[in-house]
Every structure is written in C-alpha cells, then in structure tokens.
Amino acid sequence: MSQTMVSETDQDFIPVVIDRDERGRVKKGQALNPRGGQDRRLYAMKKKLDDLTPRALNALARLVEDEGNPSVRLNAAIQILDRTLGKPKQSVSLDVTSTSAMHLAALEELSARAKRTIDITPIETPIEQKD
Q: 4: which strand partners?
C-alpha cells in the first residue's frame, strides 16, 4: 500500500510516495518529510534552477574572459569567488570600557534611597464647614 501526497496547487512539485504496511503504518526507512523540513516552494524553485546553474556558470566564465570591459570582468570574478570561497570576514575593532563601577554606584544610590524614612503622618488641616 502506498500513498502519494500532492495537493492540487502543487502540480510542479515532486510527489512524495510513502510506503505503508497492511496496518497503515509507515514502513521502516520511509520518511514523511524527505525534504527535511524545507519549504515546498523553495524546494521546487531550487529544483527548477538546477537546470539553469550550469548555464549561469558558463555565462560568468565568459564574462571573466571578456577582454572588452574590465569592470565586468572584475564583478564576474568577485561573484565567482564569493560563491566558492565565501565572502571575506570583516574585522571589527571594539573598545569596551568597564561600566561595572557606574553600575555599582547606581545600585548604591538606589539602596540609599530605599533606606530613607518617609514621614507619612497625616497633617491635620481644618476642614472648612459649609453653611
């Protein structure tokens, strides 16, 4: 018993065939999610672009060999290197000053404020009587 899971809107997607035993359970070695959680649309798009990849690489190679325009050659070479070796790491210079002393002073100030006593004795004011 096998089951093909394809919705009406997924005509371009590769169907997933799942083999099940006589009790309807998935057979050993079968994957319910063979794309590994990858979005279906992204998976289908990548499958379609697989056919274009060799042509795109050939186009980049032709641009690298183009003697007419040096900026085009440079950009094509950068694109190839970025995709094969990865983009170069950027170095960052960071100067960190210790803020622990300021933090401690702020905590001490908050603590001192909390220790102050506040007089909450009501002040007797004469109540005006209305005639």
A: 17
Report H helices in the chain: 40-50, 53-65, 70-84, 100-115
Q: Are 20 and 27 spatial neighbours (Cβ–Cβ below 8 Å)?
A: yes
Sequence-separated (6 or more) residues with CB below 8 Å from residue 80? 60, 64
Contact between residue 106 and residue 90 where contact means Cβ atoms under 8 Å apart: no
- pTM higher than 0.70: no
| CA distance linking residue 44 with residue 31, whole number of Å | 18
Work out the angle between the directed axes of helices 70-84 and 53-65 (0-180°, nearest 10).
140
- 66-107 tens-digit pLDDT: 888 888 888 888 888 888 888 878 888 877 777 788 888 888
What is the domain partition of the chain in residue ranges? Answer: 2-38, 53-84
Report d(CA 73, CA 90) in Å as an integer.
24
